[in-house]
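Can anyone check this?
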Amino acid sequence: MNVIVVAAGSGRRLGGNLPKQYMPLNGKPVLYYSLNAFEKSPLVKHVSVVISHDAENLYDDFLQKYGTEFSKLTYPFFGGKERKDSVCNAMSEISNHFIPDDNLIAIHDCARPFLPHDLLKKLYETAEVFGGSAPALPLVDTVKEIDCDGFIISNPIRERLKIVQTPQVFNFSQYLKAVRICKEKNVHVTDDTEIYSRFAEVGKVKLVAGYSCLFKITYKEDIERAEKLLSEGSEWKL
């Protein structure tokens, strides 16, 4: 399986001048932990990081300090205007240079640093059978759909709703076609399961049980939560 780690965001909601993927957790950047799980997995052959042009120097500094620890890293790809553009660029490059042996691709947000090893295996096995897989958590709170003025217009059934995480794993050739169509049509999407579901020929994505430790670092309190998790032990290393 090949992996694309999307690390081209600016992390504006976190504040500060340093993008969140390069912010330190126990002395190492967030990106370090995101790459480490894939480096240790025998299921992963190549890992490609998508970066922004503005952060090229930061990524070079990261490689100078930690590059020898990641033998599966390819050269980086540059992000596009939107996430789908970034992933499409990376998929095209991978299809030209790193043909996956088992025809699976995983897309992962670099801001989710704590990926349990057993979850990656489960996602791999599920995508092999169904074509697509993603981790998800049950929704605890009641959700309402509102109109533009803030009035409730529908009441979705909570039991049928999930909070979707990454990595999301797909059949490589099916996803390559889907993301190219999405980019060509310039459709706004929020994650890769939406691209696969809407534009792949088969397009079925099977959800598996996610982990609470696989949260996305978005705000300052998430950095504190991550630091606490690192200091407490190995829940996320299961």
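Reply from J.R.: I decoded it. DSSP finds seven helices and twelve strands in the chain.
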